[in-house]
Write a structure and sequence with these properties.
alpha+beta, Bactericidal permeability-increasing protein, domain 1, 2 domains, 8-stranded mixed beta sheet
């Protein structure tokens, strides 16, 4: 007489193994001070890593939270995967200054850790450079409207930011003719616009140009005329800050560094590959325009020495 007990016994054994595995995992974590080791990894990960010396390119990681896999035993060793939800970016203008966050967040157990990654490639246009490019386009030029009744000459320009808007200052002089009277105008007109990344030209451009409240009352009429006239259309077309060279350089360096295992320093090993690149967003700082490009792929970071 043969009685198949496997289908009755196996579920019970499986439940027992799951329960014992969970208890063992908890007990090991109590006895091993995992937070001490993860704290060291947390701090080391935030240090900028040079990925290319020729172009002085650096990769920075800003971790936000930590996910850990359950402990696994194999060949007499305990294995633990640690995942950091992070903001990652590359820059090619020297070692960036970072503010280290020493506070280790709560550890979250996650059985579905992956090595998928999005890395932000940065293209930066300092306002000083943007101003110089625009000066070459408009400084010294005279613009007319209404058959010559309105006339202004641009003496100087300057680009800055206000919140999420780009501010274009025009130092102008000119004249406005009304009837028999001609009024001279002189002063500064402030225009604001929304910057955006133009994928077709790989450059930063502007749209929705309008006058800003900083413009003095006596110049508002002129500012309104500028906004409504062809001058604004021409200005929007002329504001074109190329970032193709920076982004191509960052993309090439990143691809080269991660397609093969790369030792970032004596204790950090980067391994990965990049599958695609997509435009992300434009950010304004007090000193520059930043464009971000997202690189999607896989990345693992092995910290060999703690």
């Amino acid at each position: 007489l043969k009685i198949g007990l496997a289908r009755f016994v196996e579920p019970a054994l499986q439940n027992q193994m799951t329960r014992l595995s969970g208890q063992l995992d908890q007990e090991i974590q109590k006895r091993l001070n995992l937070r001490e080791y993860i704290q060291q990894a947390w701090l080391k990960l935030q240090q900028p890593v040079q990925i290319d010396k020729t172009y002085n390119a650096w990769l920075t990681v800003i971790p936000h939270d930590i996910r850990i896999s359950p402990l696994q035993a194999a060949n007499g060793q305990l294995n633990l995967r640690i995942g950091f939800n992070s903001f990652i970016q590359t820059v090619t203008n020297g070692k960036p200054t970072v503010k280290i966050n020493p506070t280790l967040p709560k550890l979250i157990t996650d059985k579905r850790l992956t090595d998928n990654v999005q890395i932000g490639l940065v293209g930066e246009v300092p306002f000083t450079h943007a101003t110089q490019l625009l000066k070459e386009q408009v400084t010294g030029k005279t613009y007319h409207a209404e058959g010559g009744k309105q006339q202004i000459t641009v003496n100087d320009v300057a680009i800055s930011s206000s919140g999420d808007k780009l501010v274009v200052m025009l130092d102008i002089n000119g004249k406005v003719k009304t009837g028999l009277f001609t009024k001279k105008i002189i002063g500064k007109v402030f225009l604001k616009a929304i910057p955006y990344y133009d994928a077709a030209t790989t450059s930063i451009r502007i749209r929705n140009l309008d006058y800003d409240l900083q413009t003095k009352d006596q110049l508002l009429r002129t500012a309104s005329w500028l906004v409504k006239g062809k001058f604004i259309q021409n200005l929007e077309q002329q504001v074109n800050f190329p970032v193709k060279a920076q982004l191509d350089q960052a993309r090439t360096l990143l691809q080269k560094s991660l397609d093969q295992a790369t030792f970032a320093d004596q204790s950090i090993l980067l391994k990965g590959n990049i599958r695609s690149f997509t435009p992300d967003n434009i950010y304004l700082t007090p000193t520059s325009i930043i464009t971000m490009l997202n690189a999607q792929g896989n990345l693992s970071v092995q910290i060999l020495k703690l």
